[in-house]
């Protein structure tokens, strides 16, 4: 346990905010490092001369800011992914070189060139009534944009009608719409023990509590899900079923049926995030198809076409559309009609599927490059996935490996970026498609291979960057 007793006399306002602000400052000044265990509520209250309740409120505020996390019975710790959560001063300038090879962001490799976009804009401009795209429109989206969304989802195994589609400003916004409509602050959402970081940020924003469920090679353990539903009464289950982020597995149909049955038994809503299913050779039936009355299906064109369009599709159960449309209204009023029109144009004229095939071929080639360079190490991935999970040999820890890689101009995502528990797998996620050139990816992978053959350096007091 870290002996941490901040000086809160310099901070104005309520004492709980003073403690949270002091904690933020000490992390930024590296007096506290990622992974440090904080004093118990009672110990810190005694040292500072405040009530235990004040410390509890301070820790809750620091957790809301994304700085700390904890487990019942194990204590409270400084989170390992602080470089993504603190303002820029936390990162020393020399650790962000211009030639950084960034394998930490799951971008698709650019496939839509200038001419493709120009052609689409010309086609849109030639239609009558083009100026209507500059008007206010229904929160759920224009009718033909919703029809295109239903058509797009059908390409990958999810069949629904346009009246059940809500057009959103990307996949993250679709998640905001559905989770915001289903929950209230303080509610519990269950998810994978290693989950998409965007879900963690969304839970911070909506002030929800996330509970991580144990995983095996087929996904969430149904028995653990059943126990959580009985003991915690969660409002929703959020999960990635196809090419899981970060572990790369795809949940088989038998497990999907089990999970759906547990949710049906307890009346727990299902939010299925399927951003990567388009990369599979064969798409299993969506999890939500086994409990359609509970199912909410999230998709977007950010990974399949290009991220800058910011167009997502949320498919909801029959009826009850208004609650989700109202979240769209409260956040963006509506998805941008012009970008939704571009996505619709590409879906209708076949450009979308051509881009999908190009993205998939590129991802397969990059996965083969990983096997060529890192194949002797523990890897978890789908052959067409955008990312791979690299298991680390002893004595490497994820935070140490991420730090040493960053000092060699390669950025990766350590397990703490995704983990909701302290006993997560020891590994890092590598995103393969963000570097535009495969040669850049090769250099990054070769740097990591050389690092794996070394022992960790001792860098006491340094945080993950």
Automatic annotation (TrEMBL):
<keyword id="KW-0663">Pyridoxal phosphate</keyword>
<dbReference type="InterPro" id="IPR015424">
    <property type="entry name" value="PyrdxlP-dep_Trfase"/>
</dbReference>
<dbReference type="InterPro" id="IPR015422">
    <property type="entry name" value="PyrdxlP-dep_Trfase_small"/>
</dbReference>
<keyword id="KW-0805">Transcription regulation</keyword>
<dbReference type="InterPro" id="IPR036388">
    <property type="entry name" value="WH-like_DNA-bd_sf"/>
</dbReference>
<keyword id="KW-0032">Aminotransferase</keyword>
<feature type="domain" description="HTH gntR-type">
    <location>
        <begin position="13"/>
        <end position="81"/>
    </location>
</feature>
<dbReference type="InterPro" id="IPR000524">
    <property type="entry name" value="Tscrpt_reg_HTH_GntR"/>
</dbReference>
<dbReference type="InterPro" id="IPR004839">
    <property type="entry name" value="Aminotransferase_I/II_large"/>
</dbReference>
<dbReference type="InterPro" id="IPR036390">
    <property type="entry name" value="WH_DNA-bd_sf"/>
</dbReference>
<dbReference type="Pfam" id="PF00155">
    <property type="entry name" value="Aminotran_1_2"/>
</dbReference>
<keyword id="KW-0238">DNA-binding</keyword>
<dbReference type="Pfam" id="PF00392">
    <property type="entry name" value="GntR"/>
</dbReference>
<protein>
    <submittedName>
        <fullName>PLP-dependent aminotransferase family protein</fullName>
    </submittedName>
</protein>
<dbReference type="GO" id="GO:0008483">
    <property type="term" value="F:transaminase activity"/>
</dbReference>
<dbReference type="InterPro" id="IPR051446">
    <property type="entry name" value="HTH_trans_reg/aminotransferase"/>
</dbReference>
<dbReference type="InterPro" id="IPR015421">
    <property type="entry name" value="PyrdxlP-dep_Trfase_major"/>
</dbReference>
<keyword id="KW-0808">Transferase</keyword>
<comment type="similarity">
    <text>In the C-terminal section; belongs to the class-I pyridoxal-phosphate-dependent aminotransferase family.</text>
</comment>
<keyword id="KW-0804">Transcription</keyword>
């Amino acid at each position: 346990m870290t002996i941490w007793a901040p000086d809160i006399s310099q901070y104005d306002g309520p004492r709980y905010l003073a403690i949270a602000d002091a904690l933020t400052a000490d992390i930024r000044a590296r007096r506290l490092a990622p992974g440090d265990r904080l004093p118990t509520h009672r110990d810190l209250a005694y040292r500072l001369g405040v009530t235990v309740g004040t410390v509890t409120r301070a820790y809750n505020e620091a957790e809301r800011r994304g700085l700390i996390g904890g487990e019942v019975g194990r204590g409270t710790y400084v989170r390992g992914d602080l470089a993504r959560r603190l303002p820029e001063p936390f990162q020393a300038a020399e650790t962000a070189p211009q030639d950084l090879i960034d394998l930490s962001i799951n971008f698709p490799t650019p496939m839509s060139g200038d001419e493709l976009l120009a052609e689409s804009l010309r086609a849109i401009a030639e239609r009558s009534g083009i100026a209507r795209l500059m008007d206010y429109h229904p929160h759920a989206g224009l009718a033909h944009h919703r029809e295109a969304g239903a058509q797009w989802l059908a390409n990958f195994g999810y069949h629904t009608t346009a009246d059940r589609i809500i057009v959103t400003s990307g996949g993250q916004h679709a998640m905001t719409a559905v989770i915001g409509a289903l929950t209230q602050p303080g509610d519990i959402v269950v998810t994978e023990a290693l989950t998409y970081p965007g879900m963690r940020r969304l839970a911070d924003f909506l002030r929800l509590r996330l509970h991580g469920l144990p995983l095996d090679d087929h996904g969430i353990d149904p028995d653990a899900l059943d126990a959580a539903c009985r003991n915690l009464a969660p409002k929703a289950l959020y999960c990635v079923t196809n090419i899981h982020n970060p572990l790369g597995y795809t949940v088989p149909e038998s497990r999907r049926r089990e999970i759906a049955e547990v949710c049906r038994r307890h009346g727990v809503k299902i939010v299925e995030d399927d951003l990567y299913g388009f990369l599979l050779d064969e798409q299993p039936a969506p999890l939500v198809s086994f409990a359609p009355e509970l199912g909410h299906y999230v998709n977007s064109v950010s990974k399949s076409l290009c991220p800058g369009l910011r167009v997502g599709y949320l498919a909801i159960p029959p009826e009850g559309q208004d609650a989700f449309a109202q979240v769209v209204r409260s956040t963006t009023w509506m998805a941008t009609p012009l970008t939704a029109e571009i996505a619709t144009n590409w879906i209708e004229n076949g450009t979308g599927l051509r881009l999908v095939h190009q993205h998939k071929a590129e991802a397969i080639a990059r996965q083969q490059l990983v096997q060529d360079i890192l194949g002797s190490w523990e890897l978890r991935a789908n052959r067409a996935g955008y990312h791979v999970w690299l298991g680390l040999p002893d004595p490497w820890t994820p935070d140490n490996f991420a730090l040493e890689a960053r000092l060699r101009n390669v950025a990766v995502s350590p397990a703490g970026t995704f983990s909701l528990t302290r006993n997560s797998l020891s590994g890092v996620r590598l995103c393969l498609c963000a570097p535009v050139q495969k040669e850049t990816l090769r250099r990054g992978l070769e740097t990591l291979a050389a690092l794996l053959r070394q022992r960790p350096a001792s860098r006491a007091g340094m945080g993950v960057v």
